[in-house]
Amino acid sequence: MLFDPGWAAHLLLLAAEEAAAVEAESGGLFDFGGTLVLQIVNFLLLMTILSAVFYGPISRVIEERSEYIRSNAGSAQRRFDEAKALADQYEQELRITRLEAQQVIAAAEAEAQKIRAQQLAEAQREAQERIAQAQADLDRQKQAALASLSGEVEAISRTLSEKLLSDSGRRF
Q: 69-88: b or e for each residue (b if 16 or more CB lie within 10 Å)?
């Protein structure tokens, strides 16, 4: 095994002992000698470099990403509002169209009723005319039949009377 955890613990223990020895020599937790100023300058230089190299671009990317998300959220909200407006407009137009369709259906039904009533009246009028014409035809045929029968009855009566008279003349 290449890495022995006991070895690392041992190394940390040695570093802690060295730090304790250095602290004991300096006399306190902080050393206010020339290294503190050097450490402050080092820290400020590190912060400047990190700000220029690392934090600036990351901040810029984060800001661009935030702006992108805000613009997308705004765009999505606008599209949602447009879709909602279109849905409302569609519902309104659908409602108007249904009302118009109902009016057209009602008008068509009224027109159909009117046409039906007219056709029924026309059919009744034609039926009455045909009945009257048939009645007139029957009356004419009846009169013709009666006239015809009257002539025949008269002829038969004449024939019978002549026959009776001729038969009675023979008897006498």
A: eeeeeeeeeeeeeeeeeeee
Beta carbons of 46 and 52 less than 8 angstroms apart = no
What is the rounded CA–CA span in Å between residue 99 and residue 164? 93
CA dihedral 132, 134, 137, 138 (to 10 degrees): -110
Task: Note the pTM of the prediction, 2 decimals.
Answer: 0.44
CA distances (Å), origin 134, targets 43, 92, 115? 128, 62, 28
Integer Cα distance of 71 and 44 in angstroms: 36
Residues 23 and 29: beta-carbon distance below 8 Å: yes
State the distance between the two ends of the chain, measured CA to CA, in whole angstroms.
177
User: Is 52's pLDDT higher than 70?
Assistant: yes
